[in-house]
Amino acid sequence: MSNRTVEMQRSVPVCETADVVVIGGGPAGVAAAISAARNGRKTILLEHSGQLGGMGTLANVSVFMGVGNVTGIYREIISEFLPEALPDSHHVSIWPQFSPFEFRYYLNRKLEKEGIEVFYHTSFVAAVMEGNRVTSVVANTREGLRAFEGRVFIDCTGDARVAGDTGVPLRSGRDEDGLTQPMTLMFMMQDTGKPVKSVLPEGCDRYETVEDLPQGRVLIWGGMGNGMLLVNMTRVRGNGAKIRDVNYAEKEALRQVFSVADYLQRNGHETYILSHVAPQVGVRETNQIVGLYTLTEDDLLSGRRFDDVVAQTNYEIDIHNPTGGKSTDERKLSGYDIPYRCMVPVNVEGLIVAGRCISATHVAMSSMRVQATCYALGQAAGNAAALAIEHGCKIADVPIPALHERLAAQGVRFRK
Q1: CA quadruple 377, 284, 43, 279: dihedral, nearest 10
Q2: Where are the strands (E) in 58-132, listed by range?
Q3: Other CB atoms closer than 10 Å to residue 280's CB: what's the count?
Q4: Are 185 and 277 in contact (CB under 8 A)?
Q5: C-alpha to C-alpha distance for 92 and 70, rounded to whole angstroms
Q6: pLDDT digits (tens, 9 = 90+) for 135-154
Q7: Are 309 and 339 in contact (CB under 8 A)?
Q8: 72 Cβ neighbours under 8 A, 6+ residues apart
Q9: Do 381 and 354 contact (CB within 8 A), yes or no?
């Protein structure tokens, strides 16, 4: 990377103005937009790709991990999109598989019904500040650079892109070496009912044993009853927020896809073809903001509870080896709270952060990063944004009793 810089100063047309501007349309962004809009706030959502759903659709991570609860907007989504998976209780785990294609369509319709305008193919470029307050963001659109003004902004980029641009300090990976969890390219295989000829392109590996596989294990889901396998078995070392790491991962992960598919076709799945490869590599971990509170490994292991709780989970510590090695650190948890302060970045006003990039250590984020928890964090962020506008207060001063009231009104039930 060159040390040289260029300077650019230009006027950018304002495309839209809203009360709440959500940047990123993954689980956190979807829930943030819905919850803010239901508070009567004009809300817009900027999404860099052509589809909502984040890793669940873009990276084909089409299974919701169990987190010990099904509540709030996440519960509503399950009830509408996967009603057969809806439990009677708010406080149980479910692990439903779903079609990323059907879910993409469902989310489009869901946000239309909520009156939320989604700007697709709109990628964050820079934050515009007045003092330490964010007043607008500039994004790259199909019509060039455009500005989006707002009163509160919610960073749901997954990489803390907005927060980082405003000067919020960021952490990345393990304390000792900065390594993040590796990336994975998910894919699907379909049962044809008859033997198929495997295809191993030139340059791919012929794996002979489970130990040869990138993760050293077979990790597949086949619970949809339609002969489809969802495969999570590739692994590429790197940080998904770094240009050349992603450049390498997209190519290497695809090479591994063909290699793994060939292995499966020779070992128990002789009638399956490679039917779908995710549009992009899946990213587990990149940046974490420095917030008013940092969630820690000790918080998880001790099952800590917080007065300003906004999400709860018992999903395990789940660290895919950051070196790219075949091991995975998996440790069961009884359950813990995530406090609102983890979403409030230091040194900036008018910005809330939701999703996997909240203030958390490398170990803590390995548990709180999954989709169901991100929906919960987004729902809290959208309500907090609305309350900050109503009360005319700083993001850090949003009254927690009022936030809990709004969450309860939107169907959130916390375990006491």
Answers
A1: -150
A2: 117-119, 123-130
A3: 19
A4: yes
A5: 7
A6: 999 999 999 999 999 999 99
A7: yes
A8: 31, 375, 376, 379, 407, 410, 411, 412, 413
A9: yes
Which of 124, 172, 119, 168 is CA-nearest to residue 350?
168
Amino acid at 267: N
* CA-to-CA dists, residue 263 to 84, 88, 184, angstroms: 33, 40, 17
pLDDT attached to residue 59: 97
Question: Among 172-176, 222-226, 301-305, whose mean pLDDT is lowest?
Answer: 222-226
How far are the Cα atoms of 48, 91, 353 from residue 286, in angstroms, in the given order?
Answer: 17, 30, 14
Q: Which residues are CB-contacts of 112 (< 8 A; sequence separation ≥ 6)?
A: none
Half-sphere exposure of 409 (CA within 13 A, CB side): 11
Residue by residue, DSSP assigns 25-52 as: -SHHHHHHHHHHHTTT--EEEE-SSS-S
Model-level pTM?
A: 0.97
Q: Is 256 exposed, middle or buried (0-12, 13-18, 19+ CB in 10 A)?
A: buried
The residues, ordered by sequence, that sit 6+ positions from 202 with a Cβ below 8 Å of its Cβ are: none
DSSP 159: S
**Around 158, how many Cα atoms within 13 Å sit in the side-chain half-sphere?**
26
Contact of 148 with 43, CB cutoff 8 Å: no
Report how far residue 351's alpha carbon sits from residue 381's, in angstroms, rounded to the nearest whole number. Answer: 10
